[in-house]
Structures are given as structure tokens and as C-alpha cells.
Amino acid sequence: MSTLQGEFGAISPIFRGPFLTRVAYNDHVPMFEELADYHLAFAPPKSEKPLREWFQFFYDLLFEHYRGEYIYKNVIANQVYLEHESFTDSLFISEMQTGWCRADAVILNGTSSVYEIKTEYDTLDRLDRQLENYRKVFDKINVLTTSRKAELVLKRVEEIIGVAYLSDEGEIVYVQEPVSNKPNTDPATMFNCMRQSEFCQAIKMAFDDVPNVPTAFLYSECIELFKTLDPEYAHDLMVACLRIRGKRKAHIDLIESAPECLKHACLEYSKPQYMATRIKKKLKEPLTCPSTFRSCEEDALN
Fold it and tell me: For residue 274, how many other CB atoms are within 10 A of its CB?
């Protein structure tokens, strides 16, 4: 482990779903106080400052000293997704299971875009296999990395693959734009990216009805039908059916009200709506503000 990973890597967990749940339960203060003590030389906020400022303080430390995966995902969430898309017409998925691997960030709107992230702490060892897998599923394929690694990536990928780097100022800069890969996608692989309710909807859209078979045979019957579809049409069906997942109002309210540093964490958050509402409220309160919330159990019953 590098010195930077040891010194600043401990900050990263506060930008993950489990820690947001701790915020909902009002169990977040000890972690912030411990991190503040450790990073006292950087002048952390006073305890009376809103929680959102504490998150921003630690995000700025990560951005300046340890640009791990969360920084890249959050930039994609802000600059690519939230600036240009609406929740009613698009979907952002983090760590989407795609064949044998998980795609770092996926945006589904009128088409599909995938982003494979390679930070300065990552190797390129698996990149070729990852891109091979993404070619079977996504229209626009992108690799987002550092300025130094962008040149290395450019030398080993096809012209169809987008290659970009995260600038010192935090902007996504393309050295090669992605080209549509939709004709090369594989219906069988795309089928396996969908849940049962989603692939049933796709089959109904394509064939007007779902096979009338016992549940145990539904998957095998449906995938055989889906494999007969034109790849581009199958791709568009997958996108349309995945987008149905969407977000509920409380989660949308949380995402929209959250500071930029927390956008990706809130996009990922999938716990019950009352917890999203709690987090939204806590972000506006001072770090050490006594909780005025009822218990989570009480909220769940209402």
C-alpha cells in the first residue's frame, strides 16, 4: 500500500452507501471526528458547520491527494449524467454486472454508455478482457483514466473506444471520442443484464407476449427468443427495459439537494425512502446537532 493510500484512503468509505446509512441513523459523528483529528493539519471545519461542508472538506482532500475511483465516478455523475440527463428519461448504474465483470459506471438514455475507470493506482492488466465484454453490451464504450495512462490506453484500443482523462482541474478531456458499437452487440449477453421482470417486458415488446411456460423454463425460453433479434434492436430493448428501474421521489430529492461531492454516493443509494429523507435533512444540520429524528423502526411503520 502506498503512503497516500494509507494516509488518505481511510477517507473513501464515507462516500459509500453504508456510511450514508450511518448518517441516517445519526451514527456518523465519531467517524468524522476521528478523520478530523488525523487530518488536523488541513484545518477541518468546525463542529457547528453543516454536515455537507464536512463531506466537501474530505472530498477536496481526496481530490487533491488521492484520486481514487470515487473521484472519477463522481465526476462522471456530475459532468456526464446530471448536467445533461433527467431522471424520467435516463438511468445511472454503478457497478453494473456485465457478463463476467462489473462496469464501473453506466448511463442509459436513448442509448447506452459505459465508463471503465483506471486511476493512477490501477493497472491495465484486465482492460482488454473488460473491453471485449463491454463490446457485447454497450453502444458507447469509454475508458477514463489519468493523462499519463491515456496515451498508453490509446495505443492498445480500437478506434471505436473512447479514451479520456481527468484533468488537474477535474474536467473530462477526450483524446479519442467513442464510435457507436451497437451493431456489434450480442443479444444473449445483453439478455443476462436484465432482471426477470425486465427481460419479460423486452420479450413482450418484441414478440407481443411472453411464453406461457412454467417459471422454471421461462429464462431458457425467453433467451432463445431474444437471441433471434437483430443486435441493434435487442440493444434498444435492453436500454428501454433497464431504464424502467428509475428512482423514487425521496431519492431524487436527496440527489438534487446533495452537494456535488456526494452526487455519486446519493445516486447509488438504494435504501428505503425514509432513510433518504433523513440523510437530506442531516446534510443541512451541524455535525454535532442532536438528532431530532424518530427511530428508523418508527419511520418504517409510518
Answer: 17
